[in-house]
Amino acid sequence: MSDSPEATDKVCPQCGQSLPASAFHRNKRRPDGLAFYCKTCAAARSAASRRKRGIAAQRTPAVPVVDGLKCCPDCQQIKPLADFPRTTNASGRHSYCKPCHNARGRESKQRLYGGSREYHLRRRYGVGQKEFDELLTEQGGVFAVCGTPDPEHLDHDHRTGWVRGILCFNCNGGLGQFRDSPERLARAITYLRGTTWQRVLIHPGVYQMCSPTRGRPPSPRS
Predict the structure, then answer these.
(1) Are strands 34-38 and 24-26 parallel, antiparallel or unpaired?
(2) Residues 6+ apart with CB under 8 A from 168
(3) Which uninterrupted H or E stretch holds 189?
(4) Entry's InterPro entries (predicted)?
(5) Mapping DSSP to helix (H, G, I), strand (E, B) and coil, where does residue 10 land?
(6) Spatial contact of 43 and 57, defined as CB atoms under 8 Å apart
(7) CATH number of the CATH domain containing 139
(8) Domain containing 17 — which CATH number?
């Protein structure tokens, strides 16, 4: 007997039946290349989940969908394939159109995390709004670098992923431009201190602009 999914029966843990591979959806991430539940049980579980979350049941479109088009189960509109986000499944497109896909994403973030902000902090930095507020209190409610109020951007070490502090947009971007390198920042400070033009008194009431390192005034502007 061949070991390919098409020729191997599989037992569905939901209904307990031994069914051919064609009774299961494909799933490349599983060792046998097939979904965990058979198509019938998977559909029943999906419908039960939708009912539990208060989402209307999916309906079959009243008219056939021709090639190049796809029906969104949420809005029940038939749209071009380009209106559906790309994915890695067999069809290459998500089941829901882009507006419905985004709406479902926002609903999930609100239901699971309490909002997009908490989802973003948890997913990218591994902390929540509670930890953010505690860190902000430790900083005195101001930016950790420039000291201005109402900071919003969480800064982290790109090598370790550890959170370092809360900065403004400019300070956070500045550290990124300097590649988080203390050596680069130190050289930048030395450069600024050594090339700042200063006023030098050369006669009572007469000043000349000169550089501490170059000792010459700036070129006249046209």
Answers:
(1) antiparallel
(2) 143, 145, 146, 148, 151, 152, 153
(3) helix 182-195
(4) Endonuclease_7, Endonuclease_7_sf, His-Me_finger_sf
(5) strand
(6) no
(7) 3.40.1800.10
(8) 3.30.60
List all residues 6 or more positions away from 144 whose beta carbon is below 8 Å from its beta carbon. Answer: 151, 155, 164, 165, 166, 167, 171
The Cα–Cα gap between 200 and 189 comes to: 22
Structural domain boundaries, residue 159: 126-180
Q: Say how many C-beta atoms besides its own lie within 10 A of residue 166's C-beta.
A: 23
User: pLDDT tens across 128-137, in order?
Assistant: 999 999 999 9
pLDDT digits (tens, 9 = 90+) for 159-209: 888 899 999 999 999 999 999 899 999 988 888 877 666 677 777 877 776
- Is 10 within 8 Å of 19 (Cβ atoms)? yes
Q: State both tokens at 37.
A: 């539940």
36 plus 78 within the same structural domain = no
CA distance 204 to 188: 35
Give the integer Cα–Cα distance in Å for 73 and 59.
6
In total, how many domains does the chain have? 3
